[in-house]
């Protein structure tokens, strides 16, 4: 008794060929398009093979001064129609061999070509010698039959080899697509894990800040901070962790985050946004700036008593987008900038863009810290 998995494997194989076209609508539109294209390719191959065979045999008859085309032409068309049915049967056989090893493909394909050659030879001889005998046709002999079988075997073997090669190409193509899909899924999982890594880190720091405000009896500021935190978390959790969002949305999230921190640092920080209007539609990973802004506030503003300026900038560099977050505080001189936030941003850029993105971070010569990101520039539609 066949298992459900075996039935599904057989079903998947057969739907790539002609006999089960009526089952295709169960699949997606893209899948149906692929199936239809492969079916057309199979039909074109069969049609091209028999047109070529018909042409070669007709030219051979004309050169050898055999019977006129008016007599032989219709008979060859009937032979081509019979051969087309044999080719469709071979297509069905190849479909059932898709789960077998490649040597078995070759073995059964060769046997199938021989069976086709015998069948075409028998059909031709029965039609020309028994059903509608040709004038002057000699009696059937074994040597002539073997010669004709070998001739047709060469033709049928060429068609079978071509179709097997085409089928194998489709197998390789499907395998490559499956491998690419697995890589994409793994990449999305990695990006999601990195994105979700930010949230506990951010929540921990923010809740500590709220706790500090409560201990200082700044209850109104703590309440405002808690409400802003709720709005920020609700917004960030609603975004797809693997998605790219317009830069304007990312900047909007950072403004919301800064409203949370304003309760603590409003008298000691000034934030400058330098985002050209032409780059507001540039696509960036969601929350890619949040760890950088958080670190600038925590280390640059939080560890300095003086007014600290935090800049969030974007610029176009040919076909690349440059993002910059820097501050003129003094805290980064101690931290060194190697914490969770920077590592997370670096890893997420690598997961999204690979070697096409760059990440640099370090102390500024005039004091403070600077983080610069470069990634491929892609504008939202």
From TrEMBL:
Residues covered by the Histidine kinase/HSP90-like ATPase domain: 284-379
Top-rank taxon, per record: Bacteria
Record-linked InterPro entries: Bact_2-comp_sensor_kinase, HATPase_C_sf, HATPase_dom, Sig_transdc_His_kin-like_C, Sig_transdc_His_kin_internal
Keyword Protein biosynthesis included in the entry's annotation: no
Transmembrane regions listed in the UniProt entry: 42-63, 75-93, 105-126
Enzyme class: transferase
EC number(s) stated in the UniProt entry for this protein: 2.7.13.3
Pfam families per UniProt: HATPase_c, His_kinase
Catalyzed chemical reaction(s): ATP + protein L-histidine = ADP + protein N-phospho-L-histidine
Keyword terms of this UniProt record: Kinase, Membrane, Transferase, Transmembrane, Transmembrane helix
GO molecular function terms listed in the Swiss-Prot or TrEMBL record: kinase activity
PANTHER family: SENSOR HISTIDINE KINASE YPDA
Protein name: histidine kinase
Natural source organism: Sphingomonas oligophenolica
């Amino acid at each position: 008794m066949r298992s459900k998995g075996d039935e599904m494997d057989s079903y998947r194989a057969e739907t790539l060929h002609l006999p089960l076209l009526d089952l295709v609508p169960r699949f997606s539109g893209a899948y149906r398009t692929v199936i239809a294209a492969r079916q057309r390719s199979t039909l074109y191959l069969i049609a091209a093979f028999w047109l070529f065979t018909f042409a070669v045999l007709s030219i051979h008859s004309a050169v050898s001064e055999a019977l006129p085309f008016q007599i032989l032409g219709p008979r060859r068309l009937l032979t081509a129609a019979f051969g087309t049915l044999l080719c469709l049967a071979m297509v069905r056989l190849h479909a059932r061999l898709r789960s077998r090893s490649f040597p078995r493909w070759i073995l059964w394909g060769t046997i199938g070509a021989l069976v086709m050659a015998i069948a075409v030879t028998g059909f031709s001889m029965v039609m020309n010698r028994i059903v509608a005998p040709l004038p002057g046709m000699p009696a059937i002999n074994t040597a002539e039959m073997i010669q004709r079988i070998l001739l047709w075997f060469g033709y049928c073997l060429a068609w079978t080899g071509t179709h097997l090669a085409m089928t194998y190409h489709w197998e390789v193509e499907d395998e490559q697509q499956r491998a690419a899909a697995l890589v994409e899924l793994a990449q999305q999982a990695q990006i999601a894990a990195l994105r979700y890594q930010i949230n506990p880190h951010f929540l921990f720091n923010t809740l500590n800040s709220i706790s500090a405000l409560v201990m200082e009896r700044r209850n109104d500021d703590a309440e405002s901070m808690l409400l802003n935190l709720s709005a920020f978390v609700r917004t960030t959790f609603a975004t797809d962790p693997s998605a790219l969002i317009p830069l304007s949305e990312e900047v909007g999230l950072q403004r919301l985050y800064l409203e949370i921190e304003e309760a603590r640092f409003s008298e000691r920080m000034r934030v400058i946004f330098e985002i050209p209007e032409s780059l507001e539609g540039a696509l960036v990973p969601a929350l890619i700036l949040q760890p950088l802004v958080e670190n600038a506030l925590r280390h640059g503003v939080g560890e300095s008593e003086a007014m600290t300026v935090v800049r969030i900038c974007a610029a176009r560099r040919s076909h690349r987008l440059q993002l910059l977050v820097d501050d003129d505080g003094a805290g980064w001189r101690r931290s060194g900038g190697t914490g969770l936030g920077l590592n997370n941003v670096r890893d997420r850029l690598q997961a999204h863009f690979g070697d096409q993105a760059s990440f640099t971070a370090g102390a500024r010569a005039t004091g403070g810290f600077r983080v610069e990101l470069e990634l491929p520039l892609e504008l939202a539609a």
